[in-house]
C-alpha cells in the first residue's frame, strides 16, 4: 500500500466513525453498550429500534472499529471497542 492509499484508508475509517454517531438516535446504541456487552435482541428491546435497524447500525460501528463483536454459541454479543472491563451487565451470558 502506498502512502497515499494508506492515507485514503485512514480517511475512510474516520468518515465511517463519523457516520456511526451522526444523529441523536445513533448515539443511543453506544450509550447502551457502555453499560455492558449485549446481543442484538437486548439492544433492540432497550432502544425500541427494529432488529434490522439495530443490526445495520452495529455493522456501521464495527466497520468504524467503534464496536467489537464476539460469538457465544449461536448468539453475537457486542461491546464498545477497547472496553475490556465492561460487559458485566444485562445481556451477558452468565450474568445474574
What would you call the structural class?
A: alpha+beta
Number of strands: 3
Q: Strands of the biggest beta sheet: in what spatial order?
A: 1-3-2
As residue ranges, the low-confidence spans are 85-96
Could you give the distance between the termini?
48 Å
Overall morphology: globular
Describe the biggest sheet?
3 strands, antiparallel
Folded structure, characterized:
There is one protein chain. With about 100 residues, the chain is α+β, with helices and mostly antiparallel strands. About 45% of the residues lie in helices and about 15% in strands. The chain has four helices and three strands. The chain has helices spanning about 5-20, 30-35, 40-45, 50-65; strands spanning about 40, 65-70, 75-80. A three-stranded antiparallel sheet has the order 1-3-2. Strand 2 (about 65-70) and strand 3 form a beta hairpin. Mean pLDDT is about 80; it is low at about 85-95.
Write the layout of secondary structure elements.
Layout lengths: L2 H18 L7 H6 L4 E2 H8 L3 H13 L3 E6 L2 E6 L16
Antiparallel strand pairs: 1-3, 2-3
